[in-house]
Amino acid sequence: MADFTAQLQHIKQRLNKSLGGKPSAETPASIAQTIANDFPSAEDDVESYLGPLWQCVIKLAQDASHNHPAQDKLVNMVSEVMLLPDDQEIRIWGDEKKWKELPLLGAEFREQINGPEGADDEKEQSKITRSWINFHAFAARLNGKGVTDWWDIPLWMLRQGLEEDLSAAPKLHDCHIMTAAQIIEHSGAIMLATKVIPTEELDDTEKRMFAAGCLFKGEAGYTPERWTFWSRRLREEAEKCSSDEVKNAALRAARLMEIWLERTKAGQS
């Protein structure tokens, strides 16, 4: 199996330069092209190349504040990877893939969704919380920009934060609420337009996957009823936040949800 340490380190260095505040010659398109140029020819090497690559991107997103321009720059880079030509042969686990599918990125995303964890040390808890919020802000930006179309993770996060009793883990209250606010802020409009209003018919497996949390008594999946419930819960939980930043983000997200839904209903009448 080939060793891609040097290539991946070079890409990481270029990404770091592109994310900095100073003007850089490193463009998202040029970095994406390097990723394609360095892509291994042997199928057995693909996972050991793409896995660490996406892990690097995720780590950079986790380290970039949810409202920092670096988040948008990372989204632009992933978008350029998505736009790479379809003529490059990419085989993973025996299947033919295209760059537009962002192969293995979804698998790496799913490695990040168990949590957030609670910690006794205040500094460690703050680090965990920031990383969790930043990651989901990045994921929401990808969906909101149409780079990805992965709606299972945001639904699970909204269920976790807005459909469960958060009093059992008070240290994580603001983390859950801020995560929900970031999901709505960066992908709520497209979520409403593509998932909530044109409600999909779910099979039995999907009904179990996307079932309601203990506080919501409605149907599984994305529905207008669930959207309204989330909006109300954001307002309710905003008043319990220990941070003004989180409180304001939650109230802002709730207001956005109300406005978007009002406009949608007006357009249908």
At a glance:
By secondary structure, this protein is mainly α. It has helices at residues 5-19, 28-37, 43-63, 69-82, 105-110, 122-144, 152-162, 173-196, 204-209, 224-238, 244-268, and strands spanning 90-92, 95-97. Helices cover 63% and strands 2% of the residues.
Low-confidence stretches: none
- Order of strands side by side in the largest beta sheet? 1-2
Please give the count of helices. Answer: 11
Strand portion: under 5%
What integer value in Å does the Rg equal?
Answer: 20 Å
Q: Note the main sheet.
A: 2 strands, antiparallel
H/E topology pattern: HHHHEEHHHHHHH
- Percent of residues in helices comes to 55-70%
- Taken from the alpha-carbon principal axes, the silhouette is globular
Tally of domains: 2
Distance between the termini: 60 Å
pLDDT averaged over residues: 95
Structural class: mainly alpha
Number of strands: 2
